[in-house]
# Entry
Amino acid sequence: MRHGGQILADQLRLHGVRRVFSVPGESFLAALDGLHGSGIANVVCRQEGGAAMMAEAQGKMTGEPGICFVTRGPGATNAAAGVHVARQDSTPLILFIGQIDTGHRDREAFQEVDFRAMFGPLAKWAAEIDSVERIPEYIGRAFAVATSGRPGPVVLALPEDMLSRAAQVPDRPGRFPRLAGDLTAPARLVMEALRGASRPLVVVGGPHWSADAAADLARFAEAQGLPVACSFRRQDYMDNRHPNYVGDLNVGPSPRLAARLREADALLVLGSRLGDIATQGYTLLDPRHHGKRLFHVHADPDEPGHVWRPEFAITAEAPAFVRALADLSPMGADWDEWTRAARADYDWWRSPQPTPGAVRQEEVIRWLSETLPEDAVLTNGAGNFAAFLHRYFVYKGYRTQLAPTSGSMGYGFPAAVAASLEHPGRVVVCVAGDGDFQMTLNEMSTAVQHGACPIVVVMNNGRYGTIRMHQERTYPGRVSGTDLANPDYAMLARAYGGHGETVTRGEDFPDALARARASGTVAVIECRVDSEALTPSQTLAAAREQGMRAQG
# Structure
């Protein structure tokens, strides 16, 4: 006989779970008891949003569902931020929520929420376990749903009385193998069709990738002479130094790469949904009539045709299809000049454009790119600071980038904590804005408690820079709600028990980073950047002038 919390913990162990992230609550005490002595590390966090983002980052890194436990009501609503990231980023995640006693339903009991209704539109599957005997069944299905097709989040509510009830129930075995058919024939069919194109472009993204898949992608691109662009925040899917890598389709992409996407006569889309970010709000491609030969490979059979009408659609995980493509002989098409020109455009885009101030973000990012170990993990949340990272950092290997395609602020630091715990021997650097970092910096307590030692580089310009940029372009000179009063980040890091420094001159950054790496604990380097340095290619004054011209 085991209580429900023990049955639950045993199922997680059978599914290979090594670590969970949680903010404890009285609603799931039995689950906490089950985790005790289970061999599963319980990383206690400071706020449920941070816990869910750490679990999401764990899912990104491993390809297995990240696991998060939170309490009912406000705990669950806080955690919704991480569920949204997992949904948009196609990341496997399982969120367990403590729930009220089943006998108190529909009385608006303390912190009562119908989680099936709340998370139904956000998660791949949202359910509540009413019977302790069915826990193994629900856990098995949760892992299957979270990882199948297009991966994503699953939410399971755990009524308090169900968890504490004892039962004699057999365990359900963990993951089962999935066998796929031979993809050689469809791969050859796509390449035969692609051979007639004069301006092809490969766009890669989505879930399921691995270091082996990245190597296969490089082998395929090189053998066929094709240019490869990565979708938003998937830059580590191909070594950026490879001559066939031509850049990424992000919020502010190279205008030359954007033009190539528009001008391409054929697109091979591998794993990516090719959404509004990659297409600049559907302006580079018109969903109504894009006028291109489009070949779409995606694990979810419902995705091709959802927005874009493909000539061929192949239901397969992108890495498996890339392996089949890489095993084909060269098709004999001559795309060398097109590909060399696209690569030259990428090299042009990476040439630093000086920005104002004594600490220049382009120089800091270039220095990080050229100096950090090749397997260093870079994380970020959202803000204009990320544009410098996208443009100037060269990603050398798979899973060296952890960033939210959902555009969630505050993601970078929790992701860095998770990365440091998962890869204790690797350097982990979170690049953050001042507004971005303040959303989750309380997780410095989590880092110190559990021995994580990420380095945070805070680009402090005293404002929500992205919103200020749009504000100046739309309502020039009418500043409202975008200026920030900030703490002394270095002093704050030291108060948490970490290492902290402030950099006011760019030449001082290398030594500050060396000391942060040597500290052996969580470290914060606050870079005081000029408030005029709005984006890699536009100052604050220029944005305001652009807005004034637009208004006549």
Remarks:
- The chain has three domains: 2-167, 184-350, 361-550.
- DSSP finds 21 helices and 22 strands in the chain.
- The chain has a mean pLDDT of 95.
- The domain at 2-167 is CATH 3.40.50.970 (Rossmann fold).
